[in-house]
Amino acid sequence: MHSSNKNLLSIENLCISFRVNRKENVHAVKGASFSIPKNSTLALVGESGSGKSVTSLAIMGLLAVENTRIDPASCIFFEGKNLLSLSSKERRQLCGKDISMIFQEPMTSLNPVFTAGFQITEVLRLHMGMDAGQARARALALLDEVGIPSPVAKFDAYPHELSGGQQQRVMIAMAIACEPKLLIADEPTTALDATIQKQIIELINALRIKREMSVLFITHDLALVAEMADSVVVMRHGEVREMGEVKQIFQDPRDPYTKALLHCRPTLATRPWQLPVINDYLHESKPTTNLTTNGTVNELAANQRPRGLSGSEEIVLDVANLSKSFYVRDGFFGHKEFKAVDNVSFKLARGKTLGIVGESGSGKTTIGLTLLRLHQATSGAVLFDGRDILSMSKQEFMPYKKRIQIIFQNPYASLNPRFTVGQILMEPMRIHKLGNDDAERVTMAYELLEKVGLPETSFDRYPHEFSGGQRQRIAIARCLTLKPEILVCDESVSALDVSVQAQVLNLLQDLQDEFSLSYVFISHDLAVVKYMADQVMVMKDGHIVEMANSDELYSNPRHEYTRTLLRAIPRGISQ
After folding, report:
1. Do 433 and 351 have their domain in common?
2. Which range of residues forms the domain containing residue 456?
3. What is d(CA 573, CA 226) in angstroms, rounded to the nearest whole number?
4. Could you tell me if 494 and 558 lie in one domain?
5. pLDDT band at 223 (very low <50, low <70, confident <90, very high)
6. 508: closest CA among 496, 497, 499, 517?
7. Within this chain, do residues 374 and 512 fall inside the same structural domain, yes or no?
8. Res. 1: pLDDT tops 50
C-alpha cells in the first residue's frame, strides 16, 4: 500500500535496468523508495551514474521502451495513482500539466528553430486549450514572472539569442505554464555562473511558495541543497544510501558516502594540502592520514596550503594592455565592435596560479584563448622569456606551443573520438618531434597515463569508453606530453562531480608541486579558485575590476562586483 495522503509522490521499490546486449543488463536503479510531501522540496543527490536522472525520467515516462525494464513490483504513486500502470495517453495528460520538468541543458532541450514564445505557447495550447491570443498573453506574463527582461522582445527571440541564464528561465516558464503540482528540476544550475545560479535557485524557491507546488531538485552538489530543500535523499550506484531532513544531513551525516560528498568540495574556510576524495571515506583504498575515524577532516588535512605572492617570484608571462575585439554585422553594410577584452595587464609567476573569475561574457575565456593565439589579439603584448609571442610568425611561435598548453572545459568535445588514447597522446609528440621513435613515445605515453592515475590498458581504448573525470585526465596527460611551463585551465573542472573534481584538482596541484607549472586557472566557481589560486583577477565586461592575493581578496574584497560574486556562493559550501 502506498504512503499517506500528505505525500504528493511516493516511489516504492523502484528497480530499473537497461539492456546493453542480448546477455548483459545494467541495473541503473536498485529498489529505491522515497516520498515527496505536498508543498515541499526534496533534493535527490548523488554523482553521475547514481540513478538520479533515470528516476526522474521514470516519473515523467520518458525512458525508452525498447531497451528499458522496470520491475513489475515497482510503484510510482502520484496523488494515489500508480503512474506505471497508466496508459500512454493518460501519462501524456499528466506529464507537462500536473508534473513538469526542467532539464539540465537548456540549449539541447529548447528547439533551436522555434522562438522562445512559440515554445511556451505550444505547451499552453496543447494542455490548456488556449487560443493563440490567450496563449501569447499568458506566455508574456510567464516570461515576466521568471524575470526575463523585455518579455515582448524576448518572446520572438530564438534560443541562441538568449544567455544561458535566460534560456534556463524560458525552460522554467515552460515548466510552470500549466501550474504543475510537481516540478522536477534536473541539475538546473550546472555550469551556470554563481550569480545566475543564485538567481535560478531563488526563482524556483519563490515559485514553489507562490504556486504551492512540490519540487524534486536533482543535483550532485550538496552545497546547493541548503539553499533549496526541506529533505534530502542521497543515491549511489542506483541505491538510496541515506535520507533525512536537510539539517540532519548537514550536521550529522550517517553514511560515509554522504560525509564524502560534504567534504570533497573545496570550502572558503580551509585549504588542505589535498582535498579528500570518496575512497578516503568509503575505505575502498588504503586509509589516508587525512581522516579521523569519524570521517571528518583532521588537523593534518586542514593544515593550510600556503598561497599568495611575495613579489620576488620569477615572472614567466608578462601580459601588457591586451585587448580583443569581435565585430558583428550592423545593418547591411556596417559592423559593430564588441570589446571582449579591453586593456588587460597582469603577470604570471613561475610555479604559481593566477585565478581569473567573473560571469559569462566577462572575457575570461577570451584571455586564455588569446594567450595561446587561438584568438588573434586586437592589441597588446604577451612577453614570454622577454619575447612578444603575439607578434611572432607562425614558424617562430612553433617552439612556444610546447611551452604553453590549454585544458579545455569540455573533455567530451576536446578529445578526438576516432583516436585511441595512445594516438591522442602520441600525436603531439610526433608533431613536435619528441622521442627518437614510436617505441620511445609509447613508453612516454605509458608514463603519462600512470602520472594522471590511469592504467596502461587505457592506451588502446577510445574516449567514449571513459567517464568525464577520466577524459579530463586524458586531456591533462595530452598537455603534459609536451612538458609545458604554463597551463591554461579553462573551466576544466566545472562540469565534473564533486568527488571527481577533487581528484582532478589534487592532480593539478601535485603536477604543479612536481614540475613548478604555472597555471592560468579560469573558473566561475569561487570556492575552487580559492583553493587553487595564489592571486585572483576579477573580470567584468572585459575589464579587470580587482586583483589581489587569494586570501586578501576573499577576506577583504574591495569592489562591489567582487562582493556580489562572493555573496552568490551557496552557503552550504562554507558551513
Report:
1. no
2. 407-481
3. 9
4. yes
5. confident
6. 517
7. yes
8. no
